Amino acid sequence: MVVTNDVELPTFSDLTVPEVDLTTSTLMTAAPYLGKACEVINNEYMLCRYELNDPRACIQLGKRVTECTLDFFRKLKKNCLEEFNQYAECVDKSSGNYAFGPCRTTQAAFDGCMKDKLSMERPDFGYFTRPRIHCSPRPAPESPPCPCAKKFPDATPSLPDSVPRPHSRFSGRFYWTTD
User: Fold this and answer.
1) Which end of the chain has fewer surrounding CB within 10 Å, N or C?
2) Are 24 and 115 in contact, with CB atoms under 8 Å apart?
């Protein structure tokens, strides 16, 4: 990608955030609760990325998403660490493809802890696939003019029916359908 001098790039300090350095099984076991806990800020970030089509404008929202994730795992570690570790270890070691089926008992213990200590219920199946309307506090961006508003001339008219259509010179492709 070519960048001119007119483009302002963010500084390195703007891009530096603490990373969420976790394993796959850890993220998979916490995903429903993490998605629910950080849903609003994540939707705001994704809306910013989609509407503005410029990741530089959404850096602060991205930092807030990361901070929400870190804050969620801090609360999880403080309240339900033992149940969570058992569940994550079961998902990690019970199958080769991180299947949840063999770990339903440890999942139930973890879900109970999350409900009792953090007042969070596991989202029902299909929760994240349902369409939602996100009300953003940001003003809507100015949209460029619609390219469909242009007026195009009509298509080239077809040949009139009065034009003679002689038979093909070397007969048709399907010999049984020709005259």
Assistant:
1) N
2) no
